[in-house]
Amino acid sequence: MHKLKTLLLAGALATGLAAPASAQRAPARITPEHVRAHVDILAGPGLRGRGSATPDEAAAAAYVAAMFRGYGLAPAPGMTGYTQPVDLVSMRLDGAPVLTANGAPVAAPLLFSSTGQPVRGKLAVYAGTDPRAVPAADAVIVTGAGVNGLQFAGGVDPTKVKLVILRANAQLREYYDRIGGRPRLPRTIKGETPRLRPTVVALDDAAFDKLAAQDGAQIALELPGLVEQAQVTTNALGYIPGTDPAAGVLLVSAHLDHLGVRPDGKVMYGANDDASGTAAVLELARSLVGKKHRRGILFVAYGSEEAGGFGARWFAEHPPVPLGEMVANLEIEMIGQQDPKLPAGTMMMTGYERSTFGETLKAHGALVTTDPYPEQNFFQRSDNYALALKGVVAHTVSGWATVPTYHTPEDVIERLDLPFMARAIQSLVAPLASLANSKARPEWKPGGRPTE
């Protein structure tokens, strides 16, 4: 509790919020100093990387909520406070996975993900490269040349295959390090059924080649020390009421969590991902709260994006205003650096071509353009997608989605381009204000609205 009070006081002093916005003059323009004040707190040592559904994430949500209150924002409709807790149920593995073939141990299996259930059955060797063509089998070892292992595993039908075994090449080991050196185990919103996925294991070259020569072997994967635990993730919400209740609401959002502390003790600070986006949400709230707008503007910082988008999914299922009243959602993620593939000073908008939203913002001065990485499917990989699946015109803007510091301990404030961030955020103020006062609303283009 002492740490949280200290963080909130530091944030209030750093951003000049000793009194509500109603008692102050209109806020100044967004500056690198304003942006840094937020990121210093969110990505500083006190919050230890804001791990999903941890007390550190809850402290980050409390900081954002306190800023909303200090700016003079109201609670979201139907809420009495500024935070929204979400109950989760997760699995934790306290032992090492054990893989055997015909009863003999297989050396050092690297567990990437699991359903939380043991796997037993016959092994099939698959030498192809198309995950859709994998035969039905209890376990499949993938020997096809040039296969992107995790991408392949993600395309395997989990109703046909229980366990996918991959070669632990350098790319897979690097990714395992980036996700914190922990397997992805089932985590769900309380009361939900976990999504069905195959268990994924990787082996070093010697163990992989030995197992690949045992087509038809009896495989067993055991998960000793697997326990279930209750967790809470936290969203922070603030609201600027509109003057016309029938005009709808704009949603501006980001995720406030990151990867926390790795098992090796290294802190994953997450300055770019996504303290930068959370700082943008706070600065936009500070800039837009001073004037009346026809439409309401709802600001949200979601919890547990990194763990499966749980904060956004809960919000989409329990919105404080009906989804039909949400005119558009602008999600802000990783705006801390400028992508060299983009025009100087601009951000990319995922799914730009799917709707008229990006064109509308750009026409009023927003520094946004198309996504140069369509093959990466970024539109589906951020919190905007939970709203888009519900029909809300929802997109994410990013500065550099493939930044080299992504999911590494080097994602720190010293790596951020603060002047770029300030200019990018400032460029969104007038377009959002214009849309908040407009009678027009962004629309999906033909075929643009996504389906599951």
Q: Can you put this structure into words, describing what you see?
A:
This protein is 27% helix and 23% strand. It is built from eleven helices and 19 strands. It has a nine-stranded mixed beta sheet with strand order 8-1-11-15-12-16-19-17-18, with helices on both faces. An eight-stranded mixed beta sheet has the order 3-2-10-5-6-7-9-4. Strands 13-14 form a two-stranded antiparallel sheet. The longest helix is centred in the C-terminal third of the chain and has 19 residues, at 418-436. Residues 12-25 have low confidence and may be disordered.
Key terms:
452 residues; alpha/beta; 8-stranded mixed sheet; 11 helices; 19 strands; 27% helix
Distance between the termini: 41 Å
Low-confidence stretches: 12-25
| Average pLDDT score | 91
Structural class: alpha/beta
For the largest beta-sheet, the strand count, sense and barrel status come to: 9 strands, mixed
Molecular shape? elongated
State the order of secondary-structure elements, H for helix, E for strand.
HHHEEEEEEHEHEEHEEEEEHEHEEHEHEH
Number of helices: 11
Strand order across the biggest sheet?
8-1-11-15-12-16-19-17-18
Could you give a quick summary of the protein structure above?
By secondary structure, this protein is of the alpha/beta class. The protein has eleven helices and 19 strands.
